């Protein structure tokens, strides 16, 4: 993907993040109504992918099939049960796990980018995601719709910074420079 497209997508994420930050309660209510349908749709896509797969090896079918079943279960549970839970698990807890998992993934990505001039942006975006996830996780009983909206807005802005740093890293051709330096050192 070209760095210009990445930069535009990062800008869109940042704009969405700012919008959510300034309208946290209304956006959270809107999203809560859409999430069950998105989960059902994602589950259906996973399950169709398993069924329509040409190679039917068990290993390549089990995990996507399980993910599809769990996504469909989550969507049905939210749609026809309590919309604040997925089965016995609260949405705040799941949201915290997503934030911590996303932040951990960002921080694991950063290990290979220590020489990048955008290293601090990568590191900061990952740390913000993990920090917000832990904040939601340890205060899950007191989490309100407005607070979730603010956290979601900040997460979108952190994701925008992360994606933007990758775009500028591609623009500056840092990866090629690092590869040349590694080849010369070897």
UniProtKB/TrEMBL annotation:
InterPro entries: Acid_resist_chaperone_HdeD. The chain crosses the membrane at residues 32-52, 59-76, 88-111, 118-141, 147-168. Keywords: Membrane, Transmembrane, Transmembrane helix. It comes from Sphingomonas naasensis. Coiled coil: none annotated. This is HdeD family acid-resistance protein. The lineage of its organism: Bacteria, Pseudomonadati, Pseudomonadota, Alphaproteobacteria, Sphingomonadales. GO terms for cellular component: plasma membrane.
């Amino acid at each position: 993907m070209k760095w210009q497209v990445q930069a535009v997508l990062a800008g869109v994420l940042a704009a969405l993040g700012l919008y959510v930050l300034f309208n946290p309660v209304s956006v959270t209510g809107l999203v809560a109504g859409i999430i069950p349908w998105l989960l059902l749709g994602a589950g259906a896509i996973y399950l169709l992918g398993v069924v329509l797969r040409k190679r039917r090896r068990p290993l390549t079918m089990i995990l996507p099939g399980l993910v599809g079943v769990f996504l469909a279960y989550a969507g049905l549970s939210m749609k026809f049960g309590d919309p604040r839970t997925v089965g016995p698990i609260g949405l705040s807890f799941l949201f915290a796990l997503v934030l911590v998992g996303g932040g951990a993934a960002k921080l694991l990505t950063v290990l290979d980018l220590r020489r990048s001039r955008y290293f601090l942006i990568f590191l900061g975006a990952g740390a913000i995601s993990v920090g917000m996830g832990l904040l939601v996780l340890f205060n899950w009983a007191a989490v309100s719709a407005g607070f979730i909206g603010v956290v979601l807005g900040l997460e979108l802005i952190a994701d925008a910074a992360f994606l933007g740093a990758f775009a500028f890293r591609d623009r500056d051709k840092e990866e090629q420079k690092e590869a040349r330096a590694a080849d010369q050192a070897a």
